[in-house]
Amino acid sequence: MIRPKILFVKHYTNNTKFVLNDYEILKQNYDVTLYNTYTKKNFLIVFSLLKQFFYLLFNTHKFNLVFIWFGDYHSFFPVMLAKMFKKKSVIAIGGFDATDIPEIEMGAFNEDSFRKKMRSRFLRYSLKNADKLLVVDDSLIDNVNKYIFSDVPLKGPVKDGILNFIPGIKSKIEVVYTGFDEEFFKPDSGIPKENFVLTVGNSFNDNEFRRKGFDMLIETAKILPEIEFVLIGLNNEQIKDLSEKNYRNVKLISYVTMDELRTYYKRAKVYAQLSLFEGQPNSLCEAMMMECIPVGSDVNGIPRVIGDTGFIVYKKDKNEIAEKILLAMQSNSELGKKARKRIIDNFSLDRRRNKILSVARDLISG
Is residue 133 a contact partner of residue 169, using CB atoms and an 8 Å limit? Predict the structure, then answer.
């Protein structure tokens, strides 16, 4: 029996586990072709997109479904050509493609320059014309972020989510949480928990450094000198600059392998996610799977993930953060076990698998 064919489109830099999980899930039931789009931020983007256009022009008709991770430059032609050849298309929305926060250069809806305006237009076309939009958290549909400017007098909350930029497309949006493998992210009883705070993020520039809340954790570390803070994912320049300040209780680490990261998860008693914006916080979910006690900001999907298994920070204030971290440190190991169970019950890989396969089946048969 000939299996239906799916074209799986992503940006070449998007190799995170949750993106590749969907590729592996779809391969179980379908013949899946992976297409990486090599878009650049300079003028070469024109040539990159032209290359993608001609590939799609001559190949889209061969596929039954086009599955795209993230709405951006690279989603425009796949959606357009799918529509032209009367094929179905679906976009998985992760967060950047559902907001505009210019203060931290976050969001593909921003239109402050000609290049950004073009990007926003490509995104808007993609979301309006795709057959299905899968968001990883409810807040990416419609949301009010009260935390991000809670330390700025007279500065109001931020409204974001797709419907704040493109009203009237709610019917095609569906929430499908990313999923986590309970065998892959499994605590090790032979490795005891240590009293340090861990946070993880891809801090490739200073805006991401602030978005991930690394700056607030460093400020908090100053008033909790007896607790060690471990920050993973800093770029070399950030490590150099921060190292010169000689923080005694802050450990600065660049990028690590997944095996190394799992070892840190196994050892850390507390995991902190103090993001200014976040879709579904994948690193937080991974840490909770490894029985870390979570502390997180009141932002997007973070409170939903933590539930009653950890502590929420409602104001961007180092004293409140310190208070919640101390409460987490003083908690017993049962709270970490409860955190793991919450992820297994609500954000399992099996749940994601079943939903992704169901969406693909319905679009192809429909």
Answer: yes
DSSP SS3 for 83: helix
Say if CB 226 and CB 250 are below 8 A apart: no
**Nearest-10 crossing angle of helices 282-289, 258-267:** 60
CATH of 194-346, one of 3.40.50.150, 3.40.50.2000, 3.40.50.300, 2.60.120.580: 3.40.50.2000
Residue 248 has pLDDT above 70, yes or no: yes
**Is 72 in contact with 41 (CB distance < 8 Å)?**
no
| Strands, E assignment, the chain | 5-11, 31-37, 65-69, 88-93, 132-135, 143-145, 158-160, 173-175, 194-203, 228-234, 250-253, 268-273, 293-297, 311-313
CATH number of the 5-179+349-365 domain: 3.40.50.2000
Q: How far is CA 103 from CA 45, 148, 238, 300, in A?
A: 25, 10, 20, 17
Reply yes or no on whether the pLDDT at 363 is more than 90.
Answer: yes
User: In this model, does residue 233 exceed pLDDT 80?
Assistant: yes
Q: Which region, left, alpha or beta, applies to residue 348 given φ > 0 means left and ψ of -120 to 50 means alpha?
A: beta
CATH 3.40.50.2000 residue ranges of the chain are 5-179+349-365, 194-346
Q: Which two tokens stand for residue 329?
A: 């440190």
Predicted TM-score (pTM) of the model is 0.93
Nearest partner of 161 among 95, 70, 208, 73, judged by Cα: 95
